[in-house]
Write a structure and sequence with these properties.
Length: about 80
Amino acid sequence: MVSRREMIPTGVRLTYFSSVTTPFEGATRGARLQHFVDAVTAGRYRTVVDRVFPFAEIAAAHRWMEESSAIGKIVVRVED
């Protein structure tokens, strides 16, 4: 198996530049997490759920994940 590092040709350098500021600039980890939790609670982020499996079918859920069949999140319901 070829690692990602080996896929980069010799002499090529990867660089990244961004001039975009985020609402997290200078914020603590706790504040960043709270911002995300608040946004989820307010419905600003949408999650695409592909399938919901009951806990009894956790092996099937894992197979579904390994096959890369999902087009969203896979949920395993612990309680009914």
